[in-house]
Design a protein that fits this description.
A hairpin with a 2-residue loop joins strand 7 (167-176) and strand 8 (179-192). The protein is extended and about 90 Å long. 44% of the residues lie in helices and 20% in strands. It has 13 helices and 11 strands. The chain has 3 domains: 3-114, Trigger factor ribosome-binding domain (Alpha-Beta Plaits, 2-Layer Sandwich); 154-248, Chitinase A, domain 3 (Roll), CATH 3.10.50; 272-427, Trigger factor, domain 2 (Orthogonal Bundle).
Length: 435
């Protein structure tokens, strides 16, 4: 016997796995722990680090190696135990508990885990959703043109007084009760007036200033300011204006269209913008329609989702968010001073919705026999290879069983979503109640 696992199903789709590991592997793990620790073991008549394992166990007891041995065995044997579970899908991190560890005997521990919930589907075909009329107005096109115009503006230095949306280059020194404070001064800082980047009232007092002006800015820090020692305090900033810059916008004409697009005339460019806007609106409308359908399917279905499964999904969401910030989850909690529960709280509902969505789409795929064909898989690999500028064969080498299963799962879920979308009935919007 190497690794054996037995399963006890608990309430709310939880399960307790009892994992038994052969005595030979425990003895080897104890030896490994001894090798790791022997440099610190001493005994009369032996140089430090040269005490034999049997003597060390006689002097101190084999128990001194148990913690390291248990950690090694749990880390190596838990994945092996999961491979033996044919009809059980684990959906959370395990909560381990040591049952038995004694040299020469089997090592036994338990792992309490969440398992994939069974879904009882309600109605998912022929659902009714309100049709959304897609319109693109001249105002939509003008707003898009104005956005592109702003992106292609150029900043020029001006001698006239600064106005809202102008940028000022300033030195400033701030004081509270006559004393300078940390973070209250800077040199050659570029500040766009009206951006709201500074304390409320600061930017307003620089409107009308010109290059070379010295301006006294008086403000009060907000009561909820992040630096507690400054919250609610009155402050004075001595500001030196070095430069005022105004964004000069290009004329919207045929030359503009030629500069920013592949078109020769403004009319052609506007027609293309209208097409782009329509496509965006159609995509947004489809996504909104699909979300409504999924919400209805979830409402019509029954599933018992373990709390630890939601917590695991919430932690994954939060880790994805913090990694985008360039920090880990633990660092995020240290910086914010939040507990794990407080940090997870805002993402618990989105995590639950993600789980529910995944489960009902999987259930629909199973009910309708929706799968990913070999041709579809090959096409997906070709698309991914092109996106990553790789050869298909090289890309496939990067996919292990887990990543392959994840790719299939995502693809099948999207097919299931398209299935229920195609099977839905669009109805006219309900007329508003007469007043």
């Amino acid at each position: 016997m190497s690794v054996q696992v037995s399963v006890e199903k608990l309430e709310h789709n939880m399960a307790k796995l009892t994992i038994t590991v052969g005595a030979d592997r425990l003895d080897q793990a104890i030896t490994n722990a001894y090798v790791k620790m022997r440099k610190n073991i001493t005994a009369p008549g032996f140089r430090k680090g040269k005490v034999p394992q049997k003597l060390a166990e006689k002097l101190y007891g084999a128990e001194i190696f148990y913690e390291d041995a248990a950690n090694e065995l749990v880390n190596t044997t838990y994945p092996e135990a999961l491979e033996q579970l044919e009809d059980l899908t684990v959906t959370s991190m395990p909560a381990f508990d040591l049952v038995k560890i004694e040299k020469g005997e089997d090592f036994i521990y338990t792992a309490e885990v969440a398992t994939k919930p069974e879904v009882t589907l309600g109605q998912y075909k022929g659902l009714e959703v309100e049709a959304e009329e897609i319109t693109v107005t001249a105002e939509d096109v003008d707003a898009e043109l104005a956005s592109v115009q702003k992106q292609n503006g150029r900043e020029i230095s001006i001698e006239t007084p600064a106005e809202k949306d102008d940028t000022v280059v300033i030195d400033y020194v701030g004081t509270v009760d006559g004393e300078e404070f940390e973070g209250g001064s800077a040199e050659n800082h570029s500040l766009k007036l009206g951006s709201g980047a500074f304390i409320p009232g600061f930017e307003d007092q620089l409107i009308g200033a010109k290059a070379g002006d010295d301006v006294k800015v008086e403000v009060t820090f907000p009561e909820e300011y992040h630096a507690e020692e400054l919250a609610g305090k009155a402050a004075v900033f001595q500001v030196k204006v070095h430069e005022v810059k105004h964004t000069e916008l290009p004329e919207i004409d045929d030359d503009f269209a030629q500069d920013v697009s592949e078109f020769d005339t403004l009319d052609e460019y506007k027609a293309d913008l209208e097409k782009q806007i329509r496509e965006r609106k159609e995509k947004a409308a489809l996504e909104a329609k699909q979300q409504k359908l999924v919400d209805m399917i979830i409402e019509n279905s029954e599933m018992d989702i373990p709390q630890v499964m939601v917590e695991s999904a919430a932690e994954e969401l939060l880790e994805r968010y913090t990694s985008q910030m360039g920090i880990g989850l633990q660092q995020y909690m240290q910086y914010t001073g939040m507990s794990r529960e407080d940090a997870l709280s805002p993402v618990m509902d989105p995590a639950l919705k993600n789980i529910q969505t995944s489960l009902v789409l999987q259930a629909i795929a199973e009910a309708e026999g929706i799968e990913m064909t070999d041709e579809e898989m090959e096409a997906e690999f070709e698309k991914l290879a092109e996106q990553n500028n790789m050869q298909v064969d090289k890309l496939k080498e990067l996919f292990d069983n887990n990543s392959m299963a994840a790719m299939k799962g995502d693809y099948v879920a999207q097919k299931a979503l398209r299935f229920v979308t195609d099977a839905a009935a669009e109805v006219a919007p309900k007329a508003e109640d007469a007043e």
